[in-house]
Amino acid sequence: MREELFPCKYFSFRGIGTRVKEKSFRRLRTVYDLLVNDAPLTKADIYAYAKNPLTRELTYRLLYYFRQELLFPQEFYTMEMAAESNLVNWLEFPTELNALLDQIEYIQRVSIDEDRGSVFYYHVFQFSVIEPHVPAKQGRMIGVVGPYFGDSKPTKERFKRNRMPV
Hints:
By secondary structure, the chain is α+β, with helices and mostly antiparallel strands.
């Protein structure tokens, strides 16, 4: 009787992260193949991947891994652009929104000054999806990314060059 109320044996969350990483990697397979084969790569080759919030973060990570991060367009190497990419990728995850966004708009940066004098901030976005996704009924939604601090950089410095980013 209890299984009917909560049929957890029918659901598996193991492997979700792996499937999401594989999907993300497929989007950048062309760039990866060029990097692995030491093929000539230009900023123009990277531009569309850096412009797309869905591929922006992983594009930088791949370039960083292969010591080619200077090819990443500077206009997309900002905290706002990094936060947008982070939010888009997080919302695509199956345990979150499980959908690609149809629209996303940067709203503002919100700073919070703690009593102890340390300031941190968040980036706020408004986004939506369209039918047939269930969240489409919610209309426009808000996403908050952070916290960030004054010395935060658009990419996480914890990335290791000796470890593949996917």
